[in-house]
Amino acid sequence: MAGRRVECLWKRHVVEQLKQRDRVQRQAFEEIIHQYNRLLERSDLQAVFSERLQTDKYEQQNRHDLSPGVDGGRCDSLQQEMAQMRIKHQEELTELHKKRGELAQSVIELNNQIQHKDKEIQSNEAKMLEYQQQISHLEGECRELRNSLADLERANQTLKDEYDALQITFNALEEKLRKTTDDNQELVTRWMAEKAQEANKLNAENEKDSRRRQAKLQKELADAAKEPLPIEPDDDIEVLSEDAGKGTGETSPSRQPSRTPSKRTSQPLPPAGLLDSITNIFGRRRSVNSFGTSPETAEAPSMCTEVRVPSTALHIFDAHDGEVNAVRFSPGSRLLATGGMDRRVKLWEVISGHCEPKGALTGSNAGITSIEFDSAGSYLLAASNDFASRIWTVDDFRLRHTLTGHSGKVLSARFLLDNARIVSGSYDRTLKLWDLRSKVCMKTVFAGSSCNDIVCTEQCVMSGHFDKKVRFWDIRSESIVRELELLGRVTSLDLNQDRSELLACSRDDLVKIIDLRSNAVRQTFSAQGFKCGSDFTRVTFSPDGSYVAAGSADGVLYIWNVLTGKLDKTLDKGHSSAINSVSWSPSGAYVASVEKGSKAVLWSDM
Amino acid sequence: MADDKDVLRDVWFGRIPACFTLSPEEITEREAEPYYLLLPRVSYLTLVTDKVKKHFLKVMKTEDVEEIWFEYEGSPLKWHYPTGVLFDLHASNTALPWNITVHFKNFPEHELLHCASNSVIEAHFMSCIKEADALKHKSQVINDMQKKDHKQLWMGLQNDKFDQFWAMNRKLMEYPTEEGGFRYIPFRIYQTMSERPFIQKLFRPVSPEGNPLTLGDLLKELFPAAICVEDEPKRYQVIIHGIEPLLETPIQWLSEHLSHPDNFLHISVIPAPSD
What residue stretches are annotated with the Autophagy protein ATG5 alpha-helical bundle region domain (chain B) (predicted)? Predict the structure, then answer.
């Protein structure tokens, strides 16, 4: 209670005090201050007006003369007018300000719009520029493309034209080829027909001839049986052909079968072998012509039907008493001739793998060094150590001719291709050319070295010498054309069938093939055990030129394959001493080899 | 209580009659009349003297005008004190109206703060409120308020809107009932003759026993000379808002109702008048 009274006390006190304060401080002065301020405002206003009026008054005084009283009155009315005008002007001013503000606003807005539009225009122009550039660029590209297109078209056109032209040429050439082939065919058939005709004619004539001869022979036989006639060794060579014809009459029946191959060859062969057959016929023709125009009935060289590399020794036999130096098959492959140190040339007949002794050719005074048949197979030429070469007729074993003149051992003697001349090479370092008709030595050439072997082509004689050289002689000019030096003493020379390659065996145990066209060593054959046995070891080609056979000092027969250059066979079961000479039968089926130890071996692949 | 609302209204709408005279040192085109104005007690000098400035600028040349400042009988008036405080401190017992001299030049740099614009006043005002709330509620209430609430407080003061101001300010006057009052009472004791500008200490409104403390208790603790003994003549007057409250008045009630808008209880202690 007391607390509340106390509370009320001080609160009441505070309230009263506040009220009193307000009375004193505020209420007393409030009205006065308010009124005072109003008066102050009014007086300020009046001061302003009076200033303005004074200036007007001075102006007016300049114009008019007015009484101060009127001035006073007018002052009042003027003051009022002025006030009104001022108000009006102020109003107008505010209006104009407002309008100006609005216009300024619109001006600003329009400016903004203009700027905006300008920007747009600029961007559009920029874009347009870009587009134009693009357009020009594209136009340029388009032009370039069109140009290139035109170029390509032109090139294409040119190519097409060229192609057409080539096509035409091709067609024309094809046509020509066709025509030429046709012509060729036609010519070939015609030629074949003519050949056939000729062959037939020949055969007919041959028949006729043989029959005639047979009749003659029989008559002569009858005559001969009656009286013995002396046989002269030296006969006219010129008569030889006729004698040969006579002499071979005995063996003519045996030759009949041999002629059949020739008949066979005259028939048209399949085109692949056509060329071969034609050359063969030509060869036969040549050999036929060399004997004059009369068709000869001598043994025709049999066609090499097939070269077979021998693998076994069919027949080993004693050929001579003593060394056997030379061996040769006859061109017909039926006869085998061997020559030895016993001064004899023995003839053997090759029948079914065996060599049957046929006969012996005597007359030589010393050992036989080389043997050769003529291309017909009717004569046999043997060179001998007694400084002479001899010719026998094969059929009757009669010595026909002896050619002397060398001053040393005749190491090799060959028929020239025309079979009318003989060339012989001797130890006396000379080569002699003999004419068979006149039986005299036509030419002697000094070779410079002992000649070990000779081979002949149509124009050329090749001789292998002791001084390691192979000399090429021209027959017509009878002079040396070329020399080829090997690495060892040349012991043997052989030619292949088409006379394009020369086989040379030299003392350095190498067998070389020399290409006659390029005169360079084309191939060299060697083998480990192959040793050249003597200065006269003879080597040979196979009839087709695809193999080379050579006998070694150890009695082994080596056969190389020409195409591969590799050793094909070594045949060692046969000989017991050094092989002196090897011969391959022209038929290709047999190989014969002879040795120092008097034996001869017949090899074949059967 | 109905009385309390009236107290608040009376406090808010308190006015002081002032007469502003231009200092004779100032160069004028013509003589300036004095300007009379009723100054609000709770506001600040520079906030309410726009018209004064305009009135005096009419007679002055612009090149002579620097910052306006006020002075009473030689002492420059600090604008950052509420006007009521300035009056109570300087001219409480003098004749009304309060004659203030207006100066435009020779701004006393060492005695007055510059007041460039109203935002300076606003900043000062808000910082006082925050300081007061820091003492009262550990700044919880003021920090919970949004920026617009702070703005409302200022706008209320600036535009003299009682309701607008008190709508927000009543939150700052609340306290948890179990406490019995604020944590500490925000107050300042001003003296005319003192080196210190004012006395401000921590003071709880409730005694440790739970008794509400009074104004007398405050003065006893902080300004014992102000309390007069029975037999001695009164030496000091303790004025708040132009009145002398009884010493029995509870300090909590005083802080709630007689605080200035900046939530501080500004107490002026002046020597008692001799007559």
Answer: 120-174
